[in-house]
């Protein structure tokens, strides 16, 4: 994708547009000052002109901002799986999320008070952790995917045993498959007399979900969100799937993450929930959050308690945001405040430019007048 205009790139390097155009010509690319070029080309130009380019996101070139260095294998440690619950309306997504939440031993100790922050964690009696996205439904999932964010490691497909496969079940399967996220089938409402789990397994075949009983390798578990039956097996299935995925991250670097929720709250200002993908986020860190920026004033966990830091797969509420982020935006900690400001204002400018419809496409004449 085209990410930066020649003019922008030039100004970010404090070079003249004409020199950038000349560098592009050397690469065999004819461009005008108003034209946009892709990240790979921009990187070559930056290099050509003796500057250093570093990317903050696959779709974005920022100059002088660190973050995309690969982690050495020995720095990677296991992280908790991030799980999203999807399925047809009334099949029990919300009930299941509520029931799973109750098995969190940490909340149990603290008196069971949980906040709605868009994601929560469950610490099992075994000490293992699972992170659940608390926004059931396909919208949140697709909205994030559309912004290039992939936070979900595992999808739990909830299918009511008394209703079987329905239109939104099929839609959820399509979304999960498109995102290449493994599915675990939770056959819910098994407490009901009309429950027919084998019918569910049978019908899933038509949508290329082959559960173990049917000779496939998709994990399936019979549960009841109402009675709690099978929830332990569901958690085991999640941990087993997570093990197969070998989910790892380096906690010892500056934090990167994704915004899962952002809202303006009276008395608190703009509050964003971030799911850290790698690194560790600390109070006092400067950051960019999509087109917004700030300094972490406070971090709160899903129980609403102040914490000093948050590592990989940990959802936290971030206070101290200036601007308006959106779910799916990236979150990157910067070294300095001025870096965060520069990137945020650059992104705001880019957003504004995009809104000006069909910004003057470069013409040959413009190109020559630029030189
Ligand atoms: P959602 O639309 O997928 O979020 O579904 P809900 O969680 O709101 O559940 C829809 C209805 O099914 C509610 O009336 C729940 O009480 C009921 N329900 C959910 N899970 C179960 C279950 O395991 N057994 C029974 N009997 N009812 C359930
Ligand atoms: Mg619901």
TrEMBL record:
Residues 78-248 form the Tr-type G domain. It comes from the Bacteria. Transmembrane segments: none annotated. It is found in: Cytoplasm. GTP binds at residues 87-94, 134-138, 188-191. Belongs to the TRAFAC class translation factor GTPase superfamily. Classic translation factor GTPase family. IF-2 subfamily. One of the essential components for the initiation of protein synthesis. Protects formylmethionyl-tRNA from spontaneous hydrolysis and promotes its binding to the 30S ribosomal subunits. Also involved in the hydrolysis of GTP during the formation of the 70S ribosomal complex. This is Translation initiation factor IF-2. It comes from Sneathiella chungangensis. The lineage of its organism: Bacteria, Pseudomonadati, Pseudomonadota, Alphaproteobacteria, Sneathiellales. The chain holds residues 319 to 689 of 897 of the full protein.
């Amino acid at each position: 994708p085209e990410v930066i205009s020649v003019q922008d790139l030039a100004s970010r390097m404090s070079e003249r547009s004409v020199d950038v155009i000349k560098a592009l010509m050397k690469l065999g690319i004819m461009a005008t000052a108003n034209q946009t070029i892709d990240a790979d080309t921009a990187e070559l130009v930056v290099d050509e002109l003796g500057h250093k380019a570093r990317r903050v996101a696959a779709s974005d070139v920022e100059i002088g901002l660190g973050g995309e260095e690969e982690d050495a294998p020995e720095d990677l440690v296991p992280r908790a799986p991030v799980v999203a619950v999807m399925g047809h309306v009334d099949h029990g997504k919300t009930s299941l999320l509520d029931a799973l939440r109750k098995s969190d031993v940490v909340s149990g100790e603290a008196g069971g008070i949980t906040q709605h922050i868009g994601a929560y964690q469950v610490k099992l009696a075994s000490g293992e952790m699972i992170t659940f996205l608390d926004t059931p439904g396909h919208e949140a999932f697709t909205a994030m995917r559309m912004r290039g964010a992939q936070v979900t490691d595992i999808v739990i497909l909830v299918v009511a045993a008394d209703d079987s496969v329905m239109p939104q079940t099929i839609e959820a399967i399509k979304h999960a498959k498109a995102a290449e996220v493994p599915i675990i089938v939770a056959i819910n409402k098994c407490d009901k007399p009309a429950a027919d789990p084998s019918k569910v397994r049978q019908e899933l075949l038509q949508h290329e979900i082959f559960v173990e009983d049917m000779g496939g390798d998709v994990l399936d578990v019979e549960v009841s969100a109402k009675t709690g039956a099978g929830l332990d097996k569901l958690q085991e299935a999640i941990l087993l799937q997570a093990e197969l995925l070998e989910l790892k991250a380096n906690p010892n670097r500056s934090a990167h993450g994704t915004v899962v929720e952002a809202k303006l709250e009276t008395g608190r200002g703009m509050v964003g929930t971030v799911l850290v993908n790698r690194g560790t986020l600390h109070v006092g860190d400067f950051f960019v959050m999509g087109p917004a920026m700030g300094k972490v004033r406070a971090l709160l966990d899903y129980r609403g308690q102040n914490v000093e830091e948050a590592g990989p797969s940990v959802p936290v509420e971030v206070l101290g945001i200036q601007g308006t982020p959106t779910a799916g935006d990236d979150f990157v900690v910067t070294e300095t405040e001025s870096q965060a400001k520069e990137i945020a204002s650059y992104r705001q400018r880019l957003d504004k430019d995009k809104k000006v419809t069909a910004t003057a496409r470069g013409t040959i004449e413009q190109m020559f007048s630029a030189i």
